[in-house]
Amino acid sequence: MADTPSNEPRLAPVAPSSRPVSEALLNDKWDRAISSAVVRGSLGLSFGVVFSVLLFKRRRWPALVGLGFGLGRAYEEADVAFKNGPKRSGTNGMRLVRS
């Protein structure tokens, strides 16, 4: 059976990605940082607009403050991700220190 030709076309093997692993990790971090900035910024802006309409007689500053809080939180989260790398913690919440 193995010697008989089959009608199925042979597929060429897929070449592995030419990107190094570190570049892929960096791209993932950038993707998370940008998506977090968009989500948190829009949530902060929407909360600011709601508070502006309900409490502050439709002023502009509560919306801008909410946007700033959201973008600031996203920046802080991305900064930690870029500087520290993956989180290393034990099962009980204690940080593991290698000696």
Write a compact overview of the structure shown.
The chain has 99 residues and is mainly α. Helices cover 59% and strands 0% of the residues.
Describe the structure.
By secondary structure, the protein is mainly α. The chain has helices at residues 21-54, 61-84. Helix 1 (21-54) runs antiparallel to helix 2. The longest helix is centred in the middle third of the chain and has 34 residues, at 21-54. It is elongated. The relative contact order is 0.11.
Key features of this structure:
59% helix, 99 residues, elongated, mainly alpha
List the helices and strands and how they pair.
Layout: H1 21-54, H2 61-84
Task: Give me the Rg, rounded.
Answer: 24 Å
The percent of residues in helical segments reads 55-70%
Shape: elongated
Count of helix runs: 2
Helix-strand pattern: HH
Q: Helix/strand/pairing class, anyone? A: mainly alpha
Q: Report how far the terminal alpha carbons are from each other.
A: 60 Å
Q: How is the biggest beta sheet arranged?
A: none
Average pLDDT metric: 78
**Number of distinct beta strands:** 0
Contiguous runs where pLDDT drops below 50 for at least 5 residues? none
Strand residue percentage? under 5%
